[in-house]
Design brief:
Blueprint lengths: L1 E3 H8 L3 H9 L5 E3 L4 E4 L1 H22 L13
Antiparallel strand pairs: 1-3, 2-3
Helix pairs in contact: 1-2
């Protein structure tokens, strides 16, 4: 779904100026229709899904118990 810069700013919780800067820096893809820039919100949905996958992976890695080292000797 294509939205205007102001609608994209509301969607991303950024200012319009920040969204314009991200478009000009090519960090957000946009289409210029001759009088305004239009942003496809689907690009953010894909990013958010990938971030969630990464968070789940990191949570799995961090919750894995640390194996005991065979070199550790019991002092008792």
């Amino acid at each position: 779904m294509y939205v205007t810069i102001s609608e994209a700013a509301d969607y991303l919780e950024l200012t319009e100026k920040e969204v314009r800067q991200l478009i000009f820096q090519a960090k957000i893809r946009a289409v210029h229709d001759g009088k305004q820039y239009l942003v496809n919100t689907a690009q953010f949905d894909t990013h958010l899904r990938e971030v969630e996958k990464y968070r789940a992976l990191m949570q799995d890695i961090l919750s894995e118990p640390i194996p005991e080292s065979p070199d550790v000797k019991d002092e008792d």
